[in-house]
Amino acid sequence: MAVALASVSKHFGHGADEVLALNRVTLSIQPGEFVCLVGASGSGKSTLLNLLAGLDRPSEGSLDTGGAHTTLMFQEPALFPWLTAAGNVELPLTLRGMPKAERRREVARLLELVRLTEFGGRHPHELSGGMRQRVALARALAQAAEVLLMDEPFGALDAITRDLLHDELERIWRERGLSVLFVTHNAREAVRLGDRVLVFSSRPGRVAAEFPVDLPRPRRIESPELAVLAARIYDRLRLEADLDG
Ligand code: ADP
Ligand code: MG
How far is the CA of 105 from the centre of ligand 2 (A)? Predict the structure, then answer.
């Protein structure tokens, strides 16, 4: 098991201001599995990823990453503007204590993996939104984590760029044998990518339903089979929103 959460709850604040963000969430992700999590905004998705990334601790319950390293990628690429693309990818390698010559080779390999070999010398403001997200992905991969946590990473991109990045992410996931937990509010995107799609209930977050995705890969986001399953997931999401009032 790459990741396991058992009855994890998380609340913020105290007394009248207390917010229960997660309510007894139980889920697991197998090594090499691609799991998507969909839920309304405010349902605790980011809170869950922060716990898995070790940025915060659960209020109750247990969380086990089995010694696997996790890395988190956000919707905004949050690159260092004063560093080049190559410099941004190199930074985690430097922090890991990798010697310079080896770093050079690893940066070249990672930039090639995200198809940015020609752009290593550019600064973030000289890159498109899609390219910046590729740099962020390469930087996340530079941390040599086995578990990749992605928080609506392509939400700000246009549909065509997002399509390309779905293909790239799928290829990299396979090549590297990563476990992925991918958060989105887009059911089609979830079905395009996931082995399984978890639907999160709102306030507090809880896994309300689970949909296995048995469609063969590679999938096309505009395919009718994909749309049918995505529609079922949307219905479940709407039901959760109605329950929320
Ligand atoms: P999502 O990512 O699904 O949109 P979040 O995990 O960001 O949802 O938030 C879930 C709930 O927890 C929201 O009600 C939010 O206001 C609250 N929350 C998240 N982080 C904090 C925090 N650091 N302090 C107080 N409340 C928080
Ligand atoms: Mg969020």
Answer: 35
